[in-house]
Amino acid sequence: MRIDIVTIFPAFFDVLDLSLIGKARARGLLDVNVHDLRAWTRDRHRTVDDTPYGGGAGMVMKPEPWGEALDEILTDETTLIVPSPAGEKFTQSVARELSARPHLAFACGRYEGIDQRVIDHYADRGRVRLVSLGDYVLNGGEVAAMAMIEATTRLIPGVIGNPGSLLEESHEEGLLEYPIYTKPPVWRGHEVPEILLSGNHGAIAQWRHEQSVARTREQRPDLL
Ligand code: ADE
Predict the structure, then answer these.
(1) Is the ipTM here above 0.95?
(2) How far is it, in rounded angstroms, from Cα 209 to Cα 177?
(3) Which residues cross the membrane (predicted)?
(4) Fewest beta carbons within 10 Å, which of 6, 36, 81, 124?
(5) Are 73 and 105 in contact (CB under 8 A)?
(6) pLDDT of residue 168
């Protein structure tokens, strides 16, 4: 998969060299390119924002640098993702859909957001999705893009060493994951549930399912 990220803070994405994503890049499974939006400005001050038409607080990102950047980066195969608190909610199912795409481009807005005409312009030409991480407001799209990139790329075959670990985790089955334990069997007086030491795989699977249901009812009844 190819991923292009356009931002005025490229350093936010330095961490993409680390951990599983870094390894997937080194192995050629992921081709990640981070671009500074200011490279597509033409004035001495490298201006990317201006005051909003109609008035109001804050600044809006100007359409021209975005147009020049996206003209260069987008192809017929691209899904353009614009992180925004005004978008559809990012879920495991959106991550799964995106993980099957050959090319994702993230347009990370700052200030009050990007001039709407940029979104409308590229929506006319292909796939554009306004996507929100959740019902809260971040300072810009960078942190949201990072979360979406991590959730999406780990679903690409080969990125995670043990694909079995993808199957039983929270949200894959529509339930939250059951509690997990490792050695020692007793830690500060807290014991590992006896069933997990029994070696009875059928009973363990049943117990884990019950724990998942109970945890989901407790923490996220909206999922049931
Ligand atoms: N930018 C600012 N807030 C955001 C959010 N909740 N999700 C995605 N992008 C954002």
Answers:
(1) yes
(2) 9
(3) none
(4) 124
(5) yes
(6) 76
Binding site annotation covers 55?
no
The answer to whether the CB of 82 is under 6 A from ligand 1 is: no
d(CA 97, CA 114): 25
Spell out the SS3 assignment of 56-96: CCCCEECHHHHHHHHHHHCCCCEEEEEEEEEEEECCHHHHH
Question: Among 12, 81, 132, which residue has the most ligand 1 atoms within 8 Å of its CB, making it the best to mutate?
Answer: 132
Tokens 């050629």, located at residue: 28
Q: Is 6 annotated as a binding residue?
A: no
- 176 marked as part of a ligand binding site: no
How far CA 120 is from CA of 48, 100, 125, 142, in Å, comes to: 19, 24, 9, 21
- Kindly report the protein residue whose alpha carbon is nearest to atom 10 of ligand 1: 84
Name the residue with higher pLDDT: 141 or 167.
141
Query: Is 141 near ligand 1, meaning CB less than 6 Å away?
Result: yes
Other C-beta atoms closer than 10 Å to the C-beta of 53 total 8
pTM above 0.90, yes or no: yes
